[in-house]
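sanity check this record:
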Amino acid sequence: MKINEFEKYYQKKYTKGSIDEHLAIYETRDGQGFGDSPKAILDYWVANLPEYEHIIVVKAADIAFLTAEYATFDNVTVVEYLSKAHADGMLTAKYVITNALIFTSYFTKKTGQIFVNTWHGTPVKKMGYAMPGGVMGSWNVVRNFVMTDYLLAPNEHTETIFRRDYRLDGIYDGTILRMGYPRNDVLINGLDADKTTKIRTTLGLNPAQPFVLYAPTWTGDNATLSLQSKVFTDYLKVINKTIELGFQIRLKVHPYLWELAQQDQAIAPYLIADTVETNEVLGLADQLITDYSSIFFDYLILNRPITFLDLTEDYDHERGLYIPQTDLPGTYLREVEQLDDGLQHDIFQDRRLAWQKQFTSEETGQSAKAVVEQLLAHQPVSKAAHTKPRVLINARYFLDSQVSNKIIEYIQAHQANEDISVIVSFPGSEPEFWQHVDAIIPPNSIDPDIYSRLFVHVTNTKWHELRLRGRIKKLRKLHMSFNCLQWRPKSYYELNNLTGGAKFDKLLKYRTFK
């Protein structure tokens, strides 16, 4: 199905059917392959608790591979991304497990479901409201986080960014779990001999020659990439230089680049298939070349040399970094020709040990087990009480300066005593809209005590046409306290979808200000 057909089917069935208490569904990278921590969780679960059923969601190209991989498990089913089976699984599974769900806004947790977001790495690049364009670029991530029961953070640094730069403090009612990343269990425990041999054979590696893994980050601009893009030329330069220095090298591109990268005949022989689990390869690598990918945090567990090769024009300025390049636990380079400085001279052992202590101390090799046990027990960790009443402002299309100015005045007057969220209907490319968004939440602002958070209404139904179906007691049933009944959602699904099912104490709708 196309995405709009899928969403209509999902919404139509949203209030129908019951939750299957023994069913879990997994989706990583919006169906672009299957791996990362959700796969590690599944692998532990099926090996130890056979009474549960599991559904893996992937795009059509990966169905055959994953079906064969889990052929010995009768309780694992692989379904196609954006199929009816996908929607039905999302609507009925007790446990919904993902590492992102960044680019789709259809999923809305139902009552009785447990939603797990493992996320996908410790941030080096600025995230959320701290990055350029982050206010509009993060609304669906914030909505996603708000409905998450268990959000995995591998360290204190990541938890701080979740809370601050995605504005979770004040609105998040779930539990942030700091118990390491399930995908890193393999780096602690190691691969058995048969698995090691299989991966080396698959990659064509010579055990007698040092192996370098090259894993550049995804910059988020692959929509404009082609095989003639500079990024692929740079990849080939890195490969050739590394070979020249006497190493064997393999390239692991981000899954969103995989389909295009495999068409490049020059780099294809060195390309690691998207079906090969990254952290299993990490365990075999003698050295790592990366840029700002969070993969190096995982690699820190092994305390092996890391070279940071930044071939961007000015990534720090364009995106922003949490960690200065000079503080990274490895040689920082700006030219491919300088690679011998990193690959042949390791002087960062002490700094890596310090970074291990700071960023990987939660890794025990038992993270998948700990997560599954937490899910089945479902006893959320106690949360700090929210000290401010939650206010949701319906700003509608946000094109009228009078409206936006009044909202800004309200925020400035009440932000000390209220936790304020603003929801707008996305009107398209009108410049006034973007100006007003920037006025409410200035770009790159990271102080959650000063500015509000933003949700965006993107469904086909116009915001001012939404009508309440049912009586006021239905609102009480939806666990929302209304001091003001000016906001009138169309349906139970719409209400939960817009803000991730967040609860508010007061809702304000600005129609006119006379």
